[in-house]
Amino acid sequence: MIHTVHARKEVILSAGPIASPQLLMLSGVGPKDHLNDKGISVIQDLPVGRVLYDHICFPGLVFALNTTDVAFIENKGLTLSEVLEWLRNGDNIFASPGGVEAIGYIKTHVSDDPDPTVPDIELIDIGGSFLSDGGLGGSKAIRRGMRISEALIDEAFGSIDGKDTWSAIPMLLHPKSVGRLELKDSNPFSNPKMIGNYFTVHKDVETFVAAIRHIQRLVQTPPFQQFGAKLYNGHLRTCREFEFDTDEYWECALRTLTATLHHQIATCRMGPENDSLAVLNPELQVRGIKNLRVVDTSIIPRTISAHTNAPGMMIGLKGADIIKHFWNIS
């Protein structure tokens, strides 16, 4: 059924960094050539989806432990007694969201940002690893969510799958590689095409390798060695031409096991008048369209040293203030 809805003041689009640009382009607001190619009438020629930044991570740096029952392992921890203890005390393995015990930030030696306070890598300290949901009875949800081949994992990490492990997953905060988002077709029920272009700029590889070396040095310290933490030689079959633990090997591994953390931004980029890639003005209004705003994380114009949840909340609050001020609403 087709419904027509009229807005008295304006339309606010808050569908997120994937669906907001998709809806704009389906409605005729986007790159002229791309919309023409999909048979969509162009209302406003704007660079919607031309910029896509994302936070990617590498889960394949796994350290085996020689101590048992210290890591989070799904098929051991998801028991009735553990659930009851958490409900009573709120302080056991269930208190770590997603198994994350800590988050840290580092600035690698390859960073080209002149500000010494700006990190280029986030370290996600897991009370286990991406193998913690494996083993007998494990859900294997993490690897499925990361779209990692089960055969690849079995071959490289099978002997420690579901065992006591530790990892600090490095996340690239400020990628130099820039992706884009496009329509698959003019059908609103089709998913859009997301072209990440990961590692098209080699600097991103160098930053990841520097982070891997930092983590390896970290593991050599006494707090980790008391658990016998040792880098597991999960030699990926895609990288057998390279010697394990060389920079060349890690580059190959990165191109094999990298996953998104779903922090997409900039697809409806906000910017000043002279920004040729901006879709919105600083008031979050779509350029050239009256009474239409976008208010979500798609407006973030450049990479940030954070996850996008809190910035998304801030954008909603600030956007509400902008709209109330514009319409003189107290």
UniProtKB/TrEMBL annotation:
Database matches in InterPro entries: FAD/NAD-bd_sf, GMC_OxRdtase, GMC_OxRdtase_N, GMC_OxRtase_C
Single GO molecular function: oxidoreductase activity, acting on CH-OH group of donors
Organism of derivation: Leptosia nina
Source organism, top-level taxon: Eukaryota
Family: Belongs to the GMC oxidoreductase family.
Residue stretches making up the Glucose-methanol-choline oxidoreductase N-terminal domain: 16-30
Pfam families: GMC_oxred_C (PF05199), GMC_oxred_N (PF00732)
UniProt cross-references to PANTHER family, sorted A to Z: GLUCOSE-METHANOL-CHOLINE GMC OXIDOREDUCTASE (PTHR11552), RE36204P-RELATED (PTHR11552:SF208)
Gene3D superfamilies per the UniProt record, alphabetical: FAD/NAD(P)-binding domain, Glucose Oxidase, domain 3
UniProt protein name: Glucose-methanol-choline oxidoreductase N-terminal domain-containing protein
